[in-house]
């Protein structure tokens, strides 16, 4: 099983209700997703830095697993600051309609820019178990930190992909003819 994860994400896909579902369906793969957890969680150092909070600060985590043709391929966790989004509909369990981004914007936060970091590393024991990884198999971690127009960190998405089950095509900037 091999799934493509385009970097940067194409605008038509980025604007869909589910990035993974749209990407997979376009590739002829039968996608599915399952919510694993919604609730408070202590921010790891890299998440805290992206959200501009102290490490260990409780943040809202929304964690889901994605499968392709029945094979687990990704764990995606959205992290949101509780001081901005605690007590809002974003804390509700399950998938948000029409999308998490729409929910963030409905609360008055307009997306301004994002930064994305990609790291290849060995999986944590929990990641290896959830993704059904073989011993020695690595993961690719993508951390996307999104900021509002005024620079407020409004959403951090950590996607952990089974490295052997993904290809990461890199799109060329419009109008450029070389990398």
UniProtKB/TrEMBL annotation:
Domain spans labelled UbiC transcription regulator-associated: 26-167
UniProt protein name: UbiC transcription regulator-associated domain-containing protein
Gene3D superfamilies associated with the record: Chorismate lyase-like (3.40.1410.10)
One Pfam match: UTRA
InterPro entries: Bact_HTH_transcr_reg (IPR050679), Chorismate_lyase_/UTRA_dom_sf (IPR028978), UTRA (IPR011663)
